[in-house]
Amino acid sequence: MEDDIVAKLIPILVVAFLAAIPISAQFFAYRKRKADLATIRLLVERCETVDQAALAQIAGGTRRRFRDLRRGLILLALVLPGLALAFLMESLRAQLFVLAIAGLPFTLGLVHLLFHFLLTGRDER
């Protein structure tokens, strides 16, 4: 009984640790941006001069040029293992379940690619 619980818990922990890497990167990027904006707000409240280069760097970091393309391609790459796993299963019900799960990264990947191609020219405006 205990071996069964450990065998089920190991894949869950591996996925959780792998998910913790991008989640923590996003969290610390958010905290850094929040601290930068608080610094600028404090400088403006004290009526001090704000360095235009630093302000442009902070404002320029809001939208990266190839972020949507990169995320779209990564999400579409996650669909292929899902399809391979679905075709390896014997039960039709299990195949449909795995295909439904693989449909989420497929849809999100297409949306990111669509955003990349529709919003590419808007960065310069």
Protein described:
By secondary structure, the protein is an all-alpha fold. It contains five helices and no strands. The model has no long low-confidence stretch (mean pLDDT about 80). Keywords: Membrane, Transmembrane, Transmembrane helix.
Helix content: over 70%
SSE string, helix = H, strand = E?
HHHHH
Radius of gyration, Cα only, in angstroms? 22 Å
Low-confidence stretches: none
Structure annotation, total helices: 5
Structural class: mainly alpha
Mean pLDDT: 81
Work out the strand percent: under 5%
Principal-axes shape call: elongated
Distance between the termini: 62 Å
The oligomerization state is single chain
Question: What's this entry about, in short?
Answer:
The protein is mainly α and 125 residues long. It has five helices and no strands. The protein starts with a helix and ends in a 7-residue tail after the last helix.
List the helices and strands and how they pair.
Elements: H1 2-45, H2 52-60, H3 67-77, H4 79-88, H5 92-118
Helix pairs in contact: 3-5, 4-5
Keywords: Membrane, Transmembrane, Transmembrane helix
Transmembrane segments: 6-30, 72-89, 95-119
Keywords:
single chain; 5 helices; 125 residues; elongated; mainly alpha
